[in-house]
Structure formats: C-alpha cells, structure tokens
Amino acid sequence: MYQYLEGDVAGLTPTRLVLDVGGVGYDLCVPLGSDFPASGRARAWTHLIVREDSHQLFGFADRETRDLFRLLLSVRGVGPQMALGILSGLSRGPLLEAIVGGDTAQLTRVKGVGRKTAEQILLDLSDKAAGLHAQLGAAPTPASDELKANLEDAVTALVSVGYKEKEARRQVERAAESVDAGDLELLVRTALRG
Asked: Domain 63-135: which CATH class?
C-alpha cells in the first residue's frame, strides 16, 4: 500500500522510528542498527501488516532490505517479528550470503532462529535470494567458497581424530567465531582445544 514515507524524524530508538509526514506521526518498527538519522529528514521504505486487532508499519533504510524482509515473510513459520529479528541480527549482505551459501550455522546464530527454521529459510529462499544477491551485484565471492571449504576440511580433520561429525561441526563453528576461518591450521587447532 505504501512504498515509502519521507518526513522529519520525530523520534528514534534502536527499534522504532517516528516520522512526521505532513503533521501525522507514523510509528515504524525498524531493525536494530538501521541507518536512520537522529534528526532531520529521512525516507523509510515500508511494509504494512494489517491484522484484525492491529496495523503494524515496518520501516527500512533502503528498498533492498525491505524486499528481503518481504522474502523472509514468505517462509513458512517466519512472522514479522522473527523477520525483523533476523534483519537485526544479520545485515543484508551476510544474510544473503548465508542463504545463498546454505549456511544454517550463520542463521542459527540469530536469536530465535533454530535449526528447523534456518533449514526452512534455506529451502524456501535459496533461489529467490540468489536472484536478489545477483541483482545487488554481490555474487558469492571465491573467498567465501574458500572459507566454506576450510570449514568442511576442518570438520573432516576432527572426524579423522575421533570426533563425531555433529560434534566436530559444532567445534569448528565455535572456532570460526573466534579465529580467521581462512587459516585452516589455526582453525583446526582452535577447534581441537574446544
């Protein structure tokens, strides 16, 4: 119904934006870390959800993030609050890379997203996200493919020394959070230390 609203910022919190448009204050739910100014004029790309008991207006700093929000809403089991939470936990680029690359570990790091939901997101959105990813000119990089290969090699290394695959994967994912996943030797050593 509304593509965007443009007006003066009347209020801004980490999760809410109030825009004064022609004397009417629109209260928008926004992802954490949104790039809106604390004062002055702003444009918010919007999505309106109408329910029997409420109307919710969601605002985004750019059209692409709003479109990604809409894609997330198309996933079975993902509602507006979860979609907003996902966009709060992962910015657009890393989220698209996680979906296109099939990285459930990255998605499950977001509060409220479990393994089943992450798998459903990948199942429902991998093709659509790849199109949006390409449209934004951010095709997966060889570096990200190399990192994925390193992660898999590290898992294989841990399995070869007696770890169960599930535990090996968990250890490698933990290690990748604290060290450079591009350095396979360091990644394996860190994963072995637990």
From this structure: mainly alpha
